[in-house]
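Hi R.,

Here's the input for the arginine complex you asked about:
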Amino acid sequence: MKKILLVIFSAVLFTVSFGSNKIYVGTNAEFPPFEYLEKGETVGFDMDLVNEIGKIIGKEIVIKDMGFDGLIPALQTKKIDLIIAGMTATEDRKKAVNFSEPYYSANQVIVLNKTNKDIKDFQDLKDKKIGVMLGFTGDFVVTDMGYPSEKFNAAFAGIMALQSNKIDAVVLDSETANNYIKKNNNLKLAEGKGEAENYAIAIRKTDEDLLNEVNSAIKTLHENGKFDELLMKHFK
Ligand code: ARG
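And here is the predicted structure with arginine in place:
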């Protein structure tokens, strides 16, 4: 009996001191082709990338889907260990979290109905009804220009409002915008583009080890061709 208790006790101690082998990954699965739901499963470039990283660092990846603006708070309160969500490594966010090496570069673009003739660039958005996604960099870009905007909780909702003419334009990340344009032939992009933004994985400031592991895994994936393979799969 004593022996059994001792074995149980050691097993408990082991798990407590070495932690579990799981990494809780926060995302917001409304951002195709980086993350989106397909038959109830979270799929996309970021999901494949983080699973490859998990294989290299020997951790099981557990995805937690939540609102985009809840991701950084969830990381800080340890509900998740890492964020991969097409998240731009902005100076403001760098105050709260650490970012991995960038893994993708994008920019803000303006999505319009094909019938729109008067919006060519960001300055033309003045006095227009602009849709943005709450807490996305597009939201900050439009706010910084001093324009009011209507906030949506998902890119899809903004695109729907545009298609039903409730708004004149949606400011959104380029890849996701292209994704919607390919699927809706009544939509187009304006000519003007915003500055380049770098997507990176966010990790708690105190988790230096995890940051180093993730960075070296990203390096490995670039070297062994896996990264390019994923790009081909999701951005052809
Ligand atoms: N790149 C933009 C940002 O960092 C939008 C990211 C949205 N990502 C998502 N999974 N919903 O704010």
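One thing worth noting: The pocket of arginine is lined by residues 27-28, 30-31, 35, 68, 85-88, 136-137, 173 (CB under 6 Å).

Cheers,
M.
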